[in-house]
Each structure stands twice: as C-alpha cells, then as structure tokens.
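Most newcomers find our protein records easier to grasp once they have seen one. Sequence and backbone structure share a record, each on its own labelled line. To make this concrete, we reproduce a full record directly below:
***
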Amino acid sequence: GNYTLAISDSVIPINRVKLEANSGSYPNFVFIDSVKSEYLSDLGYVNFPVMLGIVGYRVPFVSQDLKNRQYHIESIEQLKEYSLIQGRGWLDTDILRDNGFEVHTGNHIKGLYHMVANERGNFFPVGAHQVPKISKNLSQVDYLAVDEKIALYYPLPRFVFTSKSNVELSERIEQGFKIAYQDGSLITLWQ
C-alpha cells in the first residue's frame, strides 16, 4: 500500500535511539543498528538482515609504514600477534576480544584513523562497504592506507528496530524486504 517515508534532519546519538524508539515522541520511529541482545528484548524489530550481512566483512586500515614493511599473515593466529583498533562500546570490540585479539579503543571515529596511522594499533577493521567513502573522506590523514591482504568476517547483522508497539509497521517492513529479496529487486538495488 501507499506510504510516506520521512527522514528526520535531527541527528540522534546512537545511545539515545533505543529511548526515542520507546518514547512514542516520533510516530513510527525506526533505526538501523547491529543486533544486540538488549535490543532484541526491549524493542520491536524486523527479522531481516537489512545490509545483507556485508557489515560482517571487515577490511582493515593500516599505517602506510606497516604496509611498506611487507608483513605476511596467513592465519588467524598470525593476525593475533598484531593489535586491532575499534571504537569504545562497539560490538566489534567485544567480538574481537572474545576471539583472542588485543584491541585498543577510542571514543571518536576520526581519532581511530589517526591511531592506526600513527601505529598505536596495527589494524583498524571497518565494514567493507565503508572503505571507498572513508578513503575519500580521510585523504588528509597522513600515513593511512587500506590493507589489501587481510579481510575478516564475523556475523554482524543489522536489523531495523522500532518500538515493540509498532507490530504492524515491523511486519509490513519485514514483508516488504522479503518480497524484494525474493523477486530480486533488493539485490538489484543493492548492487
């Protein structure tokens, strides 16, 4: 059926979106984030990986100096000899630490790129879909490079979340995603 999609100009910090979704201040408020157990228990959600799983494919940024040293990593155990950089409070941080990696964290995204460029950690894995935009936007960060040898993968689905009371909206969005996936239009749009 017919619908109107309105995107707010307001930027709501990610730590507030759960509160806003349940507050009722915005009708049919939805947001997209990685699946967290607290979201699944406290919010309504669309049971469909809206980013089609690409967020779990991670490509690291590295310092140009480290890249020039021609390191050779052929196994996960060899990668664990290096340290990784992630944002404080990110799910990635917990996933990587739980799998035996040494992870350095920071609060500000731009600072994380400077951390890796200055070798205060060896690799900063980001979503593969983010690499072109980040590379363009951070061209002014000296000694920053994309690693072309390593890619990580761990399941990190992103769902659409909303208030638990938005059952009809959740079902409608989920049905729409499934129809678009089955008829191929979602894949065409994604590509």
